[in-house]
Amino acid sequence: MRKINNLLLIVILTTACASRVCNTNDMSEGSYRKLNLYLTDTLTFPLDSITSSMTLMSQKFKDYYTFLSFSHPKRIHFYNEVEQKLVYSLHVDDLDYNVSGYFIQSLDSIFLFSYENNTITMINSQEKILDRWELPPFGQDYLNAPKVMTGRPLLIKNGKLYSGGIGTGEPPVNQKIITEIDTDTKKVKTHLEYPYPYNRSNWGGSYFRYVYFTKSLDDNFLISFPASHLIYETNNFEELISHYGGSLKIKSINSLNGALSKEKRVAHYQTNYSYRSIITDPYRNVYYRIYEEPIEFTESAPWYKPCGAIVLDENFEYIGEFDLKIENISPSWHYSAFVSQKGLCVQINSDKEEKDMRFVALIFN
């Protein structure tokens, strides 16, 4: 296992370039290994006439594939794992806000997150509201805005809910990145700050500031930052362990040179490499860390960056990398990706009639 001391990291991985920070990937001269992808199956999930194929989030729960609908963000659809048939849908129309993320702990404990009003609601499979937690308003005493989606889901451990979030202002000095909610007392705490090099320069706001948050194979927390070649692991937020988790294709990721307009900040993100979420695969005992390749600047929305993945073993040792330049891949595949016994499941585009959602299951070699 390659663990990197945070103080030594300043010297090894990052150097200052004029008034900006150049986050150099010191391992990029290592032996790059390209992995081949193989299709094991195509999964097809039927849709009704009012539900689009685009999803806000997905979760593999026991024998179900579950999806939060983009067209109806108060509905979570449950599909049978074997036949991919719709078993039932949760309709939470009684809520006075849309759902932007969720976590299913059990059929009696389903947590719904709303970004628009910073609320977490717990319901059961009969759609009964069991509890609700109002998060403090974003402000000076609460420097974290939780965002819940695939790649940064709600997590629960020892009766407490956790989520990753983002703050505002550059550089993000003293801004917390993890929110903890005690489900019994409803008390809210925040943990950890952006690591170096974030506290040294302007990274342009939200895109490079996203906090991707998940669990490891042994139930620790894992954190991925778009501008960092490292993965961070912690059990209790008191000790933070760094693992190298960068792509050998990425030589460096540079911050901005001072304060710039929104257009230039977006252009900076589009034209640079960046990292996204970590996907934990318990079926193969590996991790997939997603990275994004640069594109030319465009003002047209939506825009998407082509992706690849670094594969790490259970000890965070480098196995290799693969491109996700799959024919007909959905541009928003990372909102719905999941793992199963069949492989890493990535959404591809449906036909124009959108009668179903389609996924390809992939394994590497």
Give a written overview of the molecule:
By secondary structure, this protein is mainly beta. The chain is 5% helix and 43% strand. The chain contains three helices and 28 strands. It has helices at 6-12, 206-209, 262-270, and strands spanning 14-17, 20-24, 37-46, 55-61, 64-69, 75-80, 86-91, 101-106, 109-114, 119-123, 129-134, 145-146, 155-157, 160-166, 176-182, 188-193, 212-215, 221-224, 230-234, 241-244, 252-254, 274-281, 286-292, 307-313, 318-323, 338-340, 343-348, 356-364. Strands 12, 13, 14, 15 and 16 form a five-stranded antiparallel β-sheet that branches. Strands 3-28-27-26 form a four-stranded antiparallel β-sheet, with no helix packed on it. Strand 18 (221-224) and strand 19 (230-234) form a beta hairpin. The longest helix has 9 residues, at 262-270. The chain is globular, with a radius of gyration of 20 Å.
Distance between the termini: 22 Å
Overall SS class: mainly beta
Number of separate helices: 3
| Mean pLDDT value | 86
Q: Considering DSSP H and I runs of 4 or more, what fraction of the residues is helical?
A: under 10%
- Name the beta content range: 35-45%
Shape descriptor: globular
Compute the CA-based radius of gyration: 20 Å
- Sheet with the most strands? 5 strands, antiparallel
Instruction: Give me the count of strands.
Output: 28
Low-confidence sequence ranges: 4-18
